[in-house]
Amino acid sequence: MQKLRRHIVIVAAVQAIVLLFAGCRKPEPATVPETPPEESPAEIRSEAIDDASVQKLLDVYASVMEETYGAQCSWKTPSFNDDMASYYAVENMRSIDEVEEYLKQYLTDSLIDRTMLENDFLEKDGTLYAVRGGRGYGYYGIDPALWKRTGDSSVSAAFTILGEPQEEKQVTFAFVLTDEGWKIDTAVLPV
User: Fold this and answer.
1) What does the domain layout of the chain look like in residue ranges?
2) Of the candidates 120, 129, 62, which has an alpha carbon nearest to the alpha carbon of residue 91?
3) Closest Cα to residue 58, out of 170, 136, 169?
4) Using CA atoms, how far apart are residues 122 and 33, in angstroms rounded to an integer?
5) Residue 9 clears pLDDT 50, i.e. is over it
6) Nearest 10 degrees: CA dihedral of 135, 137, 139, 141?
7) 62-83 confidence digits (pLDDT tens)
8) Per-residue pLDDT averaged across 115-143, rounded?
9) CATH class of the domain comprising 55-188
10) pTM greater than 0.90
């Protein structure tokens, strides 16, 4: 009987020790919800348009104001004339659709006027021609080399008349980052 008591005491002692250790277990650390890491200055600046992109976009917009739309032609001698206009063969594009696709790489849809493209180009016999009539082309423009930042995604550029920058007159541009890259979203001409 004494053996039985001793056995019961040992079992009770072991259970007491197990319970004691179970109560002394280190509690699991509380889960803290993860907070997103703060943006580094480099990540914040990634939404700012870089100078090379600004320059390329302003060059394209200058061609829009000149009504060449990126088309390359030999402007010395027209390919042919009629009573209304002179026609210059375009060397780097074959259709008005190609001109429009080129512009869509750099301008949002709101800045592309298909009617203007159809007025300034003629597709004939598989060749694209730039049409030049009796009006002044490039009278108004911008100087794409004379620009300054007005924000992370905006600039102003010198407004020109007959190629001469006009004091105190600027064209303001806002850019937007799309899946295809930076594009001009708005261009506001001086009044």
Assistant:
1) 55-188
2) 129
3) 170
4) 63
5) no
6) 150
7) 999 999 999 999 989 999 999 9
8) 90
9) alpha beta
10) no
